[in-house]
Design goal:
mainly beta, 8% helix, binds calcium ion
């Protein structure tokens, strides 16, 4: 299940567009589609340690070398020294930053709180200017089962939905995923992981300074003075938008950036009704983030980022997915994908029962990603413009196949256009009535707000991880989970997809 993706040119630092490393997330598995003898009516009977290990080995991420052949086609370089799998079954990672080693990150298997096996549910990610890959951990709660044995973590787990309502049964075979046995193991997920694809022997690092929530996206840009700003969504209804700015400048020597992401300031966004906004720092001892509210260190704030952001009156949003800085315009785009349960509205979340989503355009003050002030507007309100009751807003040149619903992943091109991948989930029939796809959206000039369809995926799939080669001539997209979402609603099909069905196609 490829999801987020990124392209790192080879040779390292070259900016080449004919050879490079594709970094691809494997967000989750659809075990019913993956295993031919999966019994949909009695899944519990199906799992063995072997099946669980296969499921774990299919999560995480891959680094693969790809190169253009003489005829211009891309091929995987199968014997590349860079090819690598990262899994929650077998890839050792370290924890770094202010929460590393904290008692709340210590477990029976890791009494020091500094070592974790693997990463899970990695959604949209990002590539840093020095060519490392940032993997986001999103719905990590799905991988935990059991009854929490540590009352001090009850509220923390509840805020993040641990254990998950649609849990994978890993915890019945690997006790670290059972919170009756290891109640602090969930605190070791929900982070951003930095991986060096250019060093296949390197150990990935979970950067706790960037906070713990259901991370979606880690796209980034340099500030006016050369530090790195990383933009991040927390993808759940009424959660928040975050930004992390490093304390030090990024170096041209990539080795010197090895711990750059361990020190800096994490901010959460507040959107005012008048189109202004502010980034509020999540810093221990400031704004009530102290003992009086149950935070006794920066580590506590990072482990319970959502609760800290609640206290700062951050603005709840319609499921913040990917966020991308647009280098051509200096603006930042935020995908608010939908919020089906919304009843009360405000300027940034203007529609109740929002099935379609909207895209926020943020203009940092002075064009500097380090600024704590910004202005904002909604560049488009998604959905079908032919039905006024939906309240969609597009440039009128947007054609009947140009508009879309449920923006999810972004990339921006050198001309400043925003490329939008959509994910309507199983709600596709109500949101747009057609399959997910990839769209180009004009962000400037008199066509601003005009969308065009570029690519469409099969029903049941979502499109994600769009990324260009540096010269803009190749666009990679990941088509995730064909057959998974609502194929019963597709008139020409009208049944669930099955492993058998796929293999019986002529
Ligand atoms: Ca998401
Ligand atoms: Ca997503
Ligand atoms: Ca999504």
């Amino acid at each position: 299940r490829p999801s987020g993706s990124g392209f790192v040119p080879l040779p390292a630092g070259s900016g080449a567009s004919d050879r490079g490393l594709l970094c691809i997330h494997h967000e989750y598995t659809n075990d019913d589609l993956m295993f031919p003898d999966y019994p949909p009516d009695d899944p519990a009977s199906f799992y063995t340690r072997e099946i669980v290990d296969i499921s774990m080995a299919a999560h995480g991420g891959s680094i693969i070398e790809v190169a253009r052949t003489a005829d211009g086609r891309w091929q995987v370089v199968r014997d590349s020294e860079y090819n690598r799998r990262l899994t929650p079954l077998a890839t050792e990672m370290t924890l770094s930053g202010p929460a590393a080693g904290h008692p709340r990150l210590r477990t029976g298997e890791d009494p020091a709180g500094r070592r974790v096996i693997g990463t899970v549910n990695n959604c949209a990610g990002g590539i840093t200017p020095w060519g490392t890959w940032l993997m986001s951990e999103e719905n990590f709660n799905f991988y935990f089962v059991g009854e929490n044995a540590d009352p001090a973590e009850t509220e923390n787990h509840k805020r993040l939905g641990v254990p998950g309502s649609r849990s994978y049964p890993w915890g019945y075979f690997h006790k670290r995923f059972n919170i009756a046995a290891e109640p602090r193991e969930p605190n070791r997920y929900g982070w951003v992981v930095e991986v060096d694809p250019l060093d296949p022997a390197s150990t990935p690092v979970k950067r706790t300074a960037l906070g713990r929530f259901k991370h979606e996206g880690c796209e980034n840009a340099l500030t006016g003075d050369g530090r790195l700003a990383v933009y991040m969504g927390d993808d759940e209804a009424d959660e928040y938008l975050y930004k992390f700015v490093t304390a030090a400048k990024a170096s041209g020597n990539r080795r010197e950036n090895a711990s750059l992401l361990d020190e800096g300031t994490l901010y959460v966004a507040r959107f005012e009704e008048d189109g202004t906004g502010a980034w509020i720092p999540l810093v221990y001892g400031e704004n009530g983030l102290d003992e009086a509210n149950g935070f006794s260190s920066q580590a506590d704030i990072l482990i319970e980022t959502r609760r800290a952001a609640d206290l700062l009156r951050a603005t709840p949003l319609d499921r913040p997915e990917d966020v991308t800085p647009n280098d051509a315009t200096g603006k930042v785009y935020v995908a608010l994908t939908n919020s089906k349960e919304r009843t009360e509205t405000d300027a940034v979340n203007p529609r109740s029962r929002n099935l379609w989503g909207q895209i926020v355009e943020i203009e940092p003050q002075d064009g500097d990603h380090a600024s704590t002030a910004f202005t904002w507007n909604l560049i488009v309100r998604c959905g079908d413009p032919a039905f006024p009751a939906i309240g969609a807003e597009w440039h009128p040149d947007t054609g009947e196949n140009g508009w879309f619903a449920c923006p999810d992943n972004f990339t921006a091109d050198a001309k400043g256009r925003l490329w939008v991948a959509t994910d309507q989930g199983s709600g596709w029939n109500a949101a747009s009535g057609s399959a997910d796809g990839l769209y180009a959206l004009a962000t400037a000039g008199d066509k601003r707000g005009t969308a065009r369809q570029i690519f469409r995926a099969p029903i049941g799939a979502e499109v994600c991880g769009p990324c260009f080669t540096p010269d803009g001539t190749t666009l990679f997209v990941a088509v995730q989970h064909p057959g998974a979402d609502g194929t019963k609603n597709f008139k020409a099909f009208e049944r669930a997809s099955t492993f058998e069905g796929v293999h019986k196609q002529p």
